[in-house]
Design goal:
mainly alpha; about 0% strand; binds fe (ii) ion; about 65% helix; single chain; Hypothetical protein af1432; globular
């Protein structure tokens, strides 16, 4: 990131990074790192991709940073589950940061990749209903945050668990083959 881009990115998200509630995410383990670090990586990648695809850079940076804004693990409660935590994160983002509609939608749809994986392998996370209509991103910003989350997750998991990354890569290849039309 250039110095100018870094300044712009910092300006977009500084209030979130200094917020006490958001700082709590430093305590949560996520993909072998902290949720804070994971979210910051997703936000920075979203910002970079947003520049390339001419997206709303402020919204994409904030949505990227807040996409996993919930406390605890995904297994701890129903609201934190694989497919419900985006709604929890969106509600928290609205409560503490008054996010706009674009940001809120991008947060809510960031787990679309998990929905696609479930469509191919329904036995994964069987107890949750995955609706393509509900989770499909509705904006360029939403698609970018979703893609950034997936890419960063693969990189983070790869560092800690090679087989997980291998399985995700395999699923992605199936996705491309099955959804190419
Ligand atoms: Fe998430
Ligand atoms: Fe995430």
């Amino acid at each position: 990131m250039t110095k100018r881009s870094k300044c712009e990115f910092d300006e977009f998200v500084c209030d979130i990074l200094e917020n006490d509630h958001f700082l709590e995410t430093k305590k949560d383990l996520h993909h072998g790192t902290s949720k804070y670090e994971h979210s910051l990586r997703v936000a920075k990648l979203s910002y970079r991709l947003g520049r390339i695809f001419k997206a709303d850079l402020r919204s994409i940076s904030r949505a990227g940073l807040l996409h996993d804004f919930f406390l605890g693990t995904r297994k701890e409660s129903a609201q934190n589950s694989y497919l419900r935590h985006p709604v929890t994160a969106s509600n928290n983002a609205k409560k503490y940061f008054n996010v706009n509609e674009l940001e809120s939608e991008a947060i809510k749809t960031h787990m679309f990749h998990h929905v696609l994986i479930k469509k191919i392998f329904p036995f994964i996370n069987r107890e949750e209903k995955a609706s393509v209509k509900e989770f499909k991103p509705k904006s360029k910003e939403g698609w970018i945050v979703c893609a950034s989350d997936l890419l960063i997750s693969i990189v983070e998991c790869e560092r800690f668990q090679f087989t997980y990354a291998f399985n995700v890569a395999l699923l992605l290849i199936f996705n491309v083959i099955l959804f190419k039309n």
